[in-house]
Amino acid sequence: MSAQPRIVDAQIHVWKASTPDRPWPADAIEPHRAPLEVPEVVAEMVAAGVSGALLLAPTWEGSRNDYVLETARADPERFGALCRFATGDPAEVERLAHWREVAGMRGIRISLNRGDVAGVLAAADASGFFAAAERHGVPLSIYAPGRYDLYDELARRHRGLRITVDHAAIEAAEGPLVEAVEPLLALAAHPGIAVKASALPCFVDEPHPFPSITEAVYRLVDAFGPERVFFGSDLSRLPVPYGELVDVFRHHLPRLGDDERALVLGTALTTWLDWPASLEKENLR
């Protein structure tokens, strides 16, 4: 019997309650649940057999990264941090040259699903953010549902940039999940684009083992290859038990060989982010 692959979740939001000492922005949107803190995440991961995860703060906490970075620094073999960033600030962009010195940081998350998306993109272009991220090898996770043209343009303009498409670029699946992922597949022509097969139970209405998820993952793997498809949960809004989702990727993808399944479950993600090499360097400090 082959050894079970290491499972690394490509996205889990964690946050704390707003307090006078650690307030949320005044215009913060209402969260969908009570704060999801690290001890609860660890318990969920242990129960589901998940050994690692990328953590990121939700938008209602603003641009702060303190909680995810503290967690990743304290337990670097289990956690990495995707950080929020002031993409339109030229002074902040200059600091990207030293991003690898930020212990625990594995990349930057950009949310482009609400608000003045055009303004955010214009400011990021004007500040030189995307060019700097490409130059300094900063992986980006971008959530821009339905904005396939945006991903395509960024990949053409910055061929050395590593971009992960969050949640398969879906915000609400109005039809079958397999059809919802179809427009994304053309982006596989860009070697710098990968995709998170994350939050997928949010877009189906069927019981475990969620055959629509299996078929959607097959489509993604056929297009991008297992080296560019990453298992993820988006645990805080997962509408099914975490263990059921993990079970789909572990036991209900029979067309994938053991090596392909291991890539999708975590090896592809850690390779994409240069996570093993970074861990080795941090453990030497």
UniProtKB/TrEMBL annotation:
Pfam families per UniProt: Amidohydro_2
Domain Amidohydrolase-related span(s) in chain numbering: 8-266
Organism listed in the record: Nocardioides endophyticus
SUPFAM superfamilies noted in UniProt: Metallo-dependent hydrolases
Family per record: Belongs to the metallo-dependent hydrolases superfamily.
InterPro entries tied to this protein: Amidohydro-rel, Metal_Hydrolase, Metallo-dep_Lactonases
Name of the protein described by the UniProt record: Amidohydrolase-related domain-containing protein
Domain of life, per lineage: Bacteria
